[in-house]
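Forwarding the complex inputs:
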Amino acid sequence: MIDAVIIVLRETLEASLLVAFLFVYSNHFSVNKKWMYWALIVGIMLSIFIASELPDISDLFDGRGQEILFVVVLITLSLLIQLTNFIVMLPKYLKSNQTTLRMLFFCIIVLAISLEGAEIIVFLQSSIASGDRFYSHLLGSTLGLGIGVSVGAVSYYLLSQSSKSSLVVCFILLMVVTAGMGSQAVSYLMQADFIESSYPIWDSRWLIDERSIIGQLLYALIGYEATPTLIQVLVYSGYIILPVTLLLYIKMIHYRKVG
Amino acid sequence: MDLKAERLTIEIEIKNHFFMPDKIEIPVDTKVKLVVHNRDSTSEEFESYELNREKLIAAGRKVNIFIGPLAVGEYPFFGEFNQKTAQGLVIVK
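Prediction (whole assembly, two chains):
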């Protein structure tokens, strides 16, 4: 049962935290949350579809279909989140962009749930087929889902307490979440032999093991990997350095014009 | 590099939630294509923290997973859905 808790918790955590951060944004900019609930439903439906088609998807492109699907979703998701961060950090454009934010939130939640949800569904299908373990797996999965959603709810509650600093915290956390997605996409590209793999540039297992609870939490939150390759670290850094530089540049030009 | 990868292909089977073989030896600093056949009637996820790899394998299907080049050492992998039994090790020499 404990395996089921961990498997489902791992998949749920990232999506749950993502939804929590977007809820904070939506509160701050008075974006109607109704769309986000619809996104949950559409996301679950899409994850059921992906789970049922995954065997055939995997066989596409000379057995690289699964990696291509995951990379496309991860890159799209990360870019949509980065775009959202930009709109949020440039409030002078916001008034005309309520609809854009709503659309972005919708797409982000749908995509985030579709991949993580598909993995949970494949796991549950596997449990059903295995027969005797189904009930313990179902109980474990429910617990994992409950803990994951609770962590998201607590994060949302904590971040809702202070409006100004919570925006900055959400901005930073969402940015590192996208960096983690970028790094994960690189890992899939190596797995499918689209790019050459290389030796890891460090090994921090002695400090935080990816199997540990902290390791799992950090994986969901900041895309922590104990043995990353150089390309992964470069992509991860790019996801942080590029938007921050661009944002500072835009703000600087704006203040120069105003000043 | 691709030709080299074609030569270094290792087949693994998943049967009754066990990897067969559960220990594979590969040469140091070499890219290897693992072909994992899932002979069970349930899906499995090949996963390894040490190799940074994870891939779902549907029942009765096979997948390709590229690993390496790797340094000398031992790299555990496991079937995430059946961790009690599905455990394996890549030994790089």
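Strands of chain B lie at 9-15, 18-20, 23-26, 32-38, 44-48, 53-57, 62-67, 73-79, 87-92.
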